[in-house]
Design a protein that fits this description.
single chain; about 350 residues; mainly alpha; Hypothetical protein af1432; about 70% helix; elongated
């Protein structure tokens, strides 16, 4: 059982421990002359642990990785015990560390395997040295109990992490559903823009996928497209529904809606990745957009995609002051603005996707 989303992964712990061990070895040899006689043993111990890490990395896709690493770690414990015993006077703690590491990373069963193998190996050492195996039986019990306790804690932590992730996912879905409902309510303020946000979201994600955006970025783009006009809540209906051209003061109000939308959404944690796109979807490729007059690649790709799709859907939708343009006419108008208002690459992808849809009748 591997715990996912650990804030401090086991391999990072091992790497730091390796560094600390190396510092301790060379420090001991530098300031404690008696340790120089054990320098070879200590360096060999570091080499053994390094080999274990390499094997673990190489077998990370193996279905039985946890049991394999438990067995290999226990085998490595034997030479490690031999190397460390003359230095510290005791080496059984090497096996204890192996059991703890395996149990905490992979759970009870691999931990028990490491405990049994470690106890057997320690039994061989003690039998060879003293002719008795009593200590081995005692350690076998202690190691097994430790593996059970640590493995149980790991299992419960895994369950807690899964439950927390599920709860977070459900809360996010609920929040997203609520936001979609809010978006629909916003679109419903004007029957001419009803459905605009959802259509824009679908097409924007298609373009983003075609341009190689990762799934997480596509999800953020989808949310941004749904919510890109939410700032219009702060704009009066008299301005939004004006049948004629807007005057300079009214245009200044309209230009505020990306910032208003950003301010509305900025305190919702799961929407953070979408904020940049909401804020900058009216920036122009030539730097003459708003609110920050960004240009070129300084505008994020999701925002450049949303900018094109937003205008395309607006052109092909009815407005109080004009009829909807046919798709071909809207595409021609957008092509004319490629390199000026719009990213030329995004325009090319939009044209290609719509052409494919026309061929397939979708």
């Amino acid at each position: 059982m591997t715990i996912k989303n650990q804030r401090f992964p086991i391999w990072r712990t091992i790497q730091i421990s390796m560094l600390a061990l190396a510092v301790w070895v060379f420090g001991a040899m530098a300031f404690m002359p008696a340790f120089k006689s054990h320098s070879t043993r200590l360096v060999m111990l570091i080499v053994l642990i390094t080999c274990l890490i390499i094997v673990a990395r190489l077998t990370r896709k193996d279905n039985y990785r946890s049991y394999l690493i438990a067995a290999i770690a226990s085998v490595v414990g034997a030479p490690a015990y031999y190397l460390i015993s003359p230095v510290t006077g005791h080496g059984e703690w090497v096996f204890a560390l192996i059991v703890i590491a395996i149990s905490s990373q992979w759970g009870t069963r691999p931990g028990l395997l490491a405990a049994v193998l470690s106890a057997i190996e320690y039994g061989f050492f003690t039998y060879y040295q003293t002719g008795a195996v009593t200590d081995a039986f005692i350690l076998a019990g202690l190691f097994s109990v430790s593996a059970l306790i640590i493995g149980t804690l790991v299992k419960h932590r895994e369950i807690a992490l899964v439950a927390r992730a599920h709860l977070a996912d459900e809360l996010e879905k609920t929040s997203e559903t609520t936001l979609i409902a809010l978006t629909r309510a916003l679109d419903a303020r004007d029957q001419d823009t009803e459905g605009h946000s959802e259509r824009t979201a679908i097409l924007a994600v298609e373009i983003g996928r075609e341009m190689g955006l990762k799934e997480a970025d596509l999800r953020s783009l989808h949310l941004a497209a749904l919510l890109h006009d939410i700032g219009k809540i702060g704009i009066s209906d008299a301005v939004l529904h004006k049948p004629g051209p807007l005057d300079e003061q009214e245009m200044a109000l309209i230009h505020k809606h990306p910032q208003i939308g950003y301010d509305i959404l900025k305190n919702i944690p799961f929407l953070n990745p979408a904020l940049d796109t909401v804020l900058h979807h009216h920036e122009k490729y030539n730097g003459k957009g708003y609110p920050n007059e960004l240009s070129g690649d300084s505008i994020s790709l999701p925002a450049r995609i949303l900018s094109v799709v937003d205008v395309y859907d607006a052109l092909t939708s009815h407005r109080p002051y004009r009829a909807a343009f046919p798709s071909e006419t809207a595409l021609e108008m957008i092509r004319e603005e490629a390199g000026q208002q719009f990213d030329p690459q995004v325009v090319q992808v939009l044209v290609r996707i719509l052409a494919d849809k026309k061929k397939t009748g979708k």
